[in-house]
Request: fold
Amino acid sequence: MSVEVEQKFIFDSDTLKTVEDIGVCIGQKQFHDQYFDTPDFKLTLRDTWLRRRKQSWELKCPTAAVSRTEESLCTQYKEITNLSEIYQRVKELINNAPETDETPSDEDDSWLSELHLVCFAEFTTTRRSFTLKGVEGVQIDLDQADFGYHVGEIEVLVPEGGDMLSAQEKIRQTAQRLGLHGERRVEGKMTVYLKRYRPEQYAKLLSAHIL
Ligand code: V4E
Reply:
């Protein structure tokens, strides 16, 4: 399990030029994401995001430390990729889940209906990724979503128990090098998607201060 610390940013042609100057492009890829929740939003109301990307499952959950502070533009989420662990976590959050000893498999989606999970968002992203010349562990992703929104991310992956403050400092320094002076948090792909296509869920998450 690792913790993803990241800061999103809006990019224009100037930012792109700076990214190309200070970074090395490590590739472009395209992926399709499907996000799942119960019809009454039990997971997302707990800031927990269940996703299938390229046939692999991922669960992003808040870390024990405060994951969002008003002063910081960074978010930090634990990433779980082991399906049995994901299943256990999701079951714990969905209180009325049936008692079973079953372990789900990648080939069989029956656990989704068993836990009343439905897909509430799906979109395809084209991502260009960069590492920074002379700096370890920082990745910059430039994302273009197929519903017409683009956003950048400065990202550091920290092994569990690793140094969060140093990750945040690396992100702060990178933001400075990119000339980002934003004082406010930038909307991610999901925020924009929910606002456009799932207004009821968006309103609930907004009033619960999840988004
Ligand atoms: C954690 C989260 C969501 C899950 C998707 O996370 P995100 O990093 O936005 O997506 P993506 O495609 O860049 O994933 P990666 O490839 O980096 O793993 S959806 C909403 N959240 C919470 C959240 C939030 N409340 N505010 C901000 C600025 N970001 C995320």
